[in-house]
Amino acid sequence: MTVASAVRPGALSDIRVIELGQLIAGPFCGQLLGDMGADIIKVEPPGAGDPMRDWGQGAEKVNWEVIARNKRSVSANLRVPEGQALVRRLIATADVVVENFKPGTLEKWGLGPDRLLAEQPGLIIARMSGYGQTGPYADRAGFGGIGEAMGGWRYIVGEPDRAPSRMGVSIGDSLTATYGCLGVLAALHVRERTGQGQVIDAALYESVLQVMEGLVPEYDRSGFIRERSGSILPGVAPSNVYRCKDGEFMIGANKDSLWKRLAVAMGRAELGDDPRYATHLARGENQAELDRLIEAWTGTLSVDEVEALMVEHSIPAGRVYRAPDMLADPHFQAREAIVTVETERYGPLRMQSTFPRLSATPGRVRRPAPARPGQHNAEVYGELLGLDAGELERLAAAGTI
Question: Does residue 3 register a pLDDT over 60?
Answer without folding.
Answer: no
